[in-house]
Request: fold
Amino acid sequence: MNIENVSIKLANIVLVFDDLINARISRDSLLDLIPDEENINHIDVGPLFVVKYPESKAEVIILNQERRAEIKIFQPEDDLWTLLPNLCSKVMNAIQESNLTAYGYNYFLDIDLHEPSDNFMVNQLSDSLINISNQIGEQITSSKIEIKYQKNGAMLNLSLNPSSEEENILSTKLNVHFLDDNLPPEENLVASFIENKDNFLETLNHIFEED
Reply:
């Protein structure tokens, strides 16, 4: 697989708390996460609070009933990989009187295979699918991968799915989940977030490297 065919669509950091309904959340702080940016949009409806920073392609979502805060950036590149953990630290500071119970990263990548992704996945898994195909007595025309594993104290969930919208696109996602009630200092969070992104790309290269 050629790494040039990879398009990073979205990355986010999710914070999970023990309670957000009774937490003290500074909406003023959330509306000033990127002070120099203009044309900020926000939605404040009951248990849902959303702030959009269009110029930075960033968005913050607070879901009180689900006890979650999501900080996301669309099509991240260059300095945006540092901006996202920076925003996460600011969101954490804006939420008071609630305890963090877990946090995690998600990376969403599309791979242009230049061939039908359904066929590609079946060929990649051909050895594993032979017995299943024989048992059902039919040819398998599509398949996907979802694996879970542990690394560096985190639980990782990696999925690869043929896109339902574009024939040649393979949609991939990595979820990195930390059962930790302490968010690392910003410098360490930046390093961890970028390291897991780089490991994801390296893992994809290993999975699809040619013999």
Remarks:
- The helical segments are 27-30, 80-94, 117-124, 126-136, 186-208.
- The radius of gyration is 20 Å.
